[in-house]
């Protein structure tokens, strides 16, 4: 009896808490939208970012190379500051190919986290047309709630720029912040897993 009561309390508590990303916005119902309506991080030229991985008290630094390749795929190559390859992935809406990855990162839970992060970063978990619940209000950002192939996701759009992506989960909840756009590309990106004390900071390198 006590377990049943506790279950319904948790369900009521968490079910009634609207995500912060929707604060100040009202639901206007569901509709079909184009993927382009979300202004995803689009890669049509070679990009380089300084990337720092923060885990508890440790920091690991390197350079992330992002490159468009055939069949609308994206290649992400992460190397240490000394030039050692950490991982080399190719990803698209339908595929995630590992060209190389350090063995410790191939551990199932770690690899699945990386896969989820990079698919979400480039919106690879979305088809070209999606049904979304829309949250909006006059003169404020627009937000969308969408069921993706990797789970539920929230998107915040402002001034025709993707500002934030959130994917709720018990342990592996994901938050991505795209900041300081220049020429339609974010200069700074923060990928965070608050429950795991894990984050990745990307800062664009001028080329």
List the helices and strands and how they pair.
Layout: H1 2-15, E1 26-34, E2 47-55, E3 58-69, E4 73-80, E5 85-91, E6 96-101, H2 108-121, E7 129-136, E8 142-148, E9 151-158, E10 161-167, E11 174-182, E12 185-193, E13 198-204
Antiparallel strand pairs: 1-7, 2-3, 2-13, 3-4, 4-5, 5-6, 7-8, 8-9, 9-10, 10-11, 11-12, 12-13
Short characterization:
The chain is mainly beta and 207 residues long. It is built from two helices and 13 strands; from the N terminus they run H-E-E-E-E-E-E-H-E-E-E-E-E-E-E.
Please describe the structure with a list of short key phrases separated by commas or semicolons.
mainly beta; globular; 207 residues; 13-stranded antiparallel beta sheet
């Amino acid at each position: 009896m006590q377990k049943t009561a506790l279950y319904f309390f948790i369900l009521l508590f968490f079910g009634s808490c609207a995500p912060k990303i929707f604060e100040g916005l009202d639901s206007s119902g569901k509709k079909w939208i184009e993927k382009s309506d979300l202004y995803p991080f689009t890669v049509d030229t070679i990009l380089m970012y300084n990337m720092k991985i923060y885990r508890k008290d440790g920091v690991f630094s390197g350079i992330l190379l992002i490159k468009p390749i055939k069949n609308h795929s994206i290649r992400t190559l992460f190397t240490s500051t000394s030039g050692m390859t950490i991982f080399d992935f190719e990803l698209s809406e339908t595929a995630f190919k590992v060209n190389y990855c350090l063995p410790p990162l191939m551990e199932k839970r770690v690899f699945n986290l990386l896969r989820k992060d990079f698919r979400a970063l480039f919106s690879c978990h979305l088809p070209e047309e999606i049904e979304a619940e829309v949250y909006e209000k006059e003169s404020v950002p627009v937000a969308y709630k969408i069921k993706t192939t990797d789970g539920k996701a929230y998107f915040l759009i402002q001034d025709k720029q993707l500002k934030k992506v959130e994917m709720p989960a018990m342990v592996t909840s994901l938050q991505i912040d795209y900041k300081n756009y220049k020429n339609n590309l974010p200069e700074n990106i923060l990928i965070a897993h608050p429950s795991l004390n894990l984050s990745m900071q990307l800062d664009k390198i001028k080329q």
